[in-house]
Write a structure and sequence with these properties.
With 92 residues, this protein is of the alpha+beta class. The protein has one helix at residues 4-20, and strands spanning 39-41, 48-51, 58-61, 66-69, 74-77. It has a three-stranded antiparallel β-sheet with strand order 1-2-3, with no helix packed on it. It has a two-stranded antiparallel ribbon with strand order 4-5. 18% of the residues are buried. GO terms for molecular function: chitin binding.
Length: 92
């Protein structure tokens, strides 16, 4: 009985992390032929991306002060992403 509460909390945390990362909305291509196909924009968070190297989208955070640029397929410097906690500034 004492294990049920910690187990339930762990399940809720895991489910909320999965639901908030945005990568569950990304469909990885069936064949990943080159590095440009590995990284896809995270629809919920421009400060991260979804890595499809294994065929399943995995959440990856860009370095601090960087956002994912889909046209380049990599994280680039940006003032929109102020820190790892994803705080966005509005566009000017």
């Amino acid at each position: 009985m004492k294990l049920l509460l910690p187990l339930a909390i762990l399940v809720v945390i895991a489910a909320s992390a999965y639901a908030n990362d945005g990568c569950h909305k990304v469909s990885c291509p069936s064949m990943v032929e080159d590095a440009k196909n590995w990284a896809h924009a995270n629809p919920d968070d421009p400060c991260s991306f979804c890595c499809c190297r294994t065929g399943e989208p995995k959440y990856k955070l860009c370095p601090p002060n960087a956002e994912f640029d889909p046209s380049q397929g990599k994280c680039v410097h940006s003032d929109r992403c102020l820190n790892k906690n994803f705080k966005m500034q509005p566009h000017n």
